[in-house]
Amino acid sequence: MKVAIYARYSSENQRDASIAVCEEFCDEFTREMNRLRMEHCAGLSAAERQFERLQNDIRRVIEAIKNGFAGPDVKAEWDALQEWKTTLQAKLDSADEPPPLRIQEWRSCTGRR
């Protein structure tokens, strides 16, 4: 997605600084949106990795049960894994699409550097 900023003098009271402030605001806004997007994506990636490890742990418990080891510790671990699986699955299912990544190439449209 490309975005252009239309900055102009709307009155004779404005100065070059007005446009500079507008550019500074846009730069800061872009940095903050990118930071939030990266934070959001990192959280989802971490949850996906946890879910993968969880699936491996569940397979390990199932193997232990198949091999005849089914004591109370296995039952407690199974219950904890299933509860964590439900929590992670709900988090992944309810995750919003991250906001679009904004890059700072807009100055090329204005001719200003």
Poorly predicted runs: 105-113
Helix content: 55-70%
CA-to-CA gap between the ends?
Answer: 20 Å
| CA-based gyration radius | 25 Å
Structural overview:
With 113 residues, this protein is mostly helical. The protein has one domain. Helix content is 69%, strand content 0%. The chain is built from three helices and no strands. Helix 1 runs antiparallel to helix 2. The radius of gyration is 25 Å and the shape is rod-shaped.
Please outline what is shown here.
With 113 residues, this protein is mainly alpha-helical. It is built from 3 helices and no strands.
Q: What are the SSEs and their pairings?
A:
Elements: H1 16-66, H2 72-94, H3 107-110
Helix pairs in contact: 1-2
Keywords:
mainly alpha; 0% strand; 113 residues; rod-shaped
